[in-house]
């Protein structure tokens, strides 16, 4: 089959590789019809080289048609249309039954102390081939597939695999019990959907991103879209001097200088030199810029909900300020299966209340992957979300 493979930093190749086979009786093989590129793939593209092997198959946002099932698969039959959640969970362990599928104890990787195994996401997460390919082996397939009907196009269902439940979880974790002001940092695909969900729940939503096309998309859906500037001052000025009730960080770690560095410097600048200097000198301010900005913008007693991926083992945080402001922090990988029952009615609603139809800007075949990774990374050409179709 053809598959999108990681070869090195910013080096993607589409190659012929052996077809996946059923390895366990609980496996299924899915023929992929749509598979998206995620901001998390950009971390692999740019940063996580040490945890990749050349030839690793990328992709964790996939759907398609079941082609073959193992002898112990009970719910699925060949021909069933399914979405595949990005985390691989058992559905039965202590964590899974509590809705913490990203921490599944049956699939977690003891070697690195990370959570559940993920499709297409490095040795840190089980080293399982991903779904940017013609075929995908799905372990524990009865649990790790979401059956869907045949009526609606792929695009409506595809994002149940990751970014839609991720955005939903981000808003849940923001923990707002009454209408308030929510700031969403980063208007990539996750930030777009989180903004729409928060707006639909009656909050005032301010989305911040340096990319004009991403701000325009957010504006179309009732979001106040701001360029990163003196955001904290502006937010304080419009919230009775308090700051945002919640800040959703849909950015995560960054490879380059950040448009939020000024906010991070501002937080660091009120620290005594002895504390601030190591943060400045170790690049922490740039790498953690969105998080520092969130600390700056959130009101006292507010919540920071982090869906962006961070990966430092011992990052320097402005804990004095965080403690003093009495902040709540929630974060982590999405527990995809936990939110599907909440999301399916919205996805299938004919009026498309989350405007999922207005997210994908670029489609292609597998062979277009190298060019489309580059476009999504540089955000050229109005690129917000890319979907590959291995069957085209
Ligand atoms: P993306 O890279 O398209 O979006 C990030 C956006 O942030 C971009 O639009 C960029 O312009 C903007 N940005 C960068 N620095 C900024 C800053 N300092 N302030 C404001 N905006 C800034 O990616 P995405 O697909 O939307 O994913 C966003 C994050 O969520 C990534 O870190 C991704 O790994 C993570 N993610 C996490 C989960 C999870 O389970 N928690 C799931 C999916 C994605
Ligand atoms: Zn993803
Ligand atoms: Zn489990």
TrEMBL record:
**Alcohol dehydrogenase-like N-terminal domain sequence ranges:** 25-142
Q: Which organism is it from?
A: Microbacterium immunditiarum
Domain Alcohol dehydrogenase-like C-terminal as annotated: residue spans: 189-254
| One of the record's GO molecular function terms | oxidoreductase activity
Residue intervals passing through the bilayer: none
Q: Which UniProt keywords apply?
A: Metal-binding, Oxidoreductase, Zinc
List the protein's name. Threonine dehydrogenase-like Zn-dependent dehydrogenase
Which family does the record claim for this protein?
Answer: Belongs to the zinc-containing alcohol dehydrogenase family.
Where would one find the signal peptide in this protein?
Answer: none
Cofactor section: Zn(2+)
